[in-house]
Design brief:
It is built from nine helices and 20 strands. By secondary structure, the protein is of the alpha+beta class. The protein has a five-stranded antiparallel β-sheet with strand order 6-7-12-10-11. The protein has a four-stranded mixed β-sheet with strand order 1-2-5-3. It has a four-stranded antiparallel β-sheet with strand order 13-19-18-17, with helices on one face. α5 packs across α6.
Amino acid sequence: MIRIEENVSLRSYNTFGIDANARYFCRISTEAQFQELIKTAVYKNEKHLIVGGGSNLLFTGDFDGLIIKVDLKGITIVEENDDHIHLEVSSGEVWHDLVMYCVQHNYGGIENLSLIPGSVGAAPIQNIGAYGVEIQEVIQLIKGIDLKTGEPKSYTKDKCGFGYRESIFKHELKEKYFISSVTLSLTKKNHRINVSYGAIQDTMKAMNTLPTIQSISDAVIQIRRSKLPDPILIGNAGSFFKNPSISLSHYQNLKNNHPKIPSYPTVNQEVKVPAGWLIEQCGWKGKRINNIGVHEHQALVLVNYGAGKGEEIYQLAMQIQSSVKEKFSITLTPEVNIIR
């Protein structure tokens, strides 16, 4: 039997630590509970939002609707041979806990994604990625529930519409589909070790270690901890903006005026520029405005120092977006899901 609460604080359900309230709140720990929930009057009559770890959300005010907290747990071996293993992971599992589980069991494929906050169910929505790896590379199957019919429905990798921080679940299926589990295809040996990023190479050299699943994970954790604030200590949602891709001609024009502008090649004759560098060049890095600000070590991270309001962080983000647009003619796109 599901329980729907009223007027619940969301402070502990978003890593920004925003003290907003939900008119209605419900925890879901099984698919059957979700199927029961979508038949209720509250679900049918109120807007609703599904929340995992809350690491990619910015509440700009109270939520006048139903918050659905996903608590599905479990890791199951679906298939296994000498070379590969397929794990079905429930959507409520903590992503980093899953990565640590895989590293400890020598399952390769997601070690570069260590210490990314959030839940397993949210990972494919964002197509999370870091240090040369995206989750789409190991996803085999997504299972869930069609919110219109209440019936189970699955999506194979090729049907998920994955792109840079994009998926079908973020657009066409937004608020139409509930992810209950993610099946990953991981290696047991002959791992595809990815140390393409200089930061990993430099860190591993300093650690004096050979590239293995464990050492890569250790290096990524060390890098992320040195650059990104712990949400438990300072409220934040990690990278607030996506790294923009611009045309080669646009990049060359910018390079004439900004010779040190960093870049990464992408497809379609485009160039990816680090959003953090753009923001820093506009003077935002380390800037604090009362209870909110831009992190002192990473300009891509907006922070709540304790009593900040979501609307204040949103307005700061819009000011940053405007200044980057004015200086570089580049429009930054938020990676964080802004709830207004």
